[in-house]
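HUMAN: Spend a minute on the protein record below and explain its fold to me.
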Amino acid sequence: MPSKDNTSSGSSGSSYHPYQITNTGTNTQGNSWDTRTQPGGSAYHYSNTDGSYYYSNANGSTYHNNGSGGSTYKSPSGNVYKK
């Protein structure tokens, strides 16, 4: 399976964060996942059938959206922010 090169940019268009998807799959519950290589190392993403999703980034930060409007972000320094 070929890997995909992707980029994301902030609203200003000045932020550029390249990553490469290295593997993808679907688990037995029907939730999809992928592993990624970012400039700082490995990362992964889960997208669940209930609408929730989770990112774990190479810099140590994480982001979880519960699919119902709530989210939690943990910064690389360990600070936690909830919505």
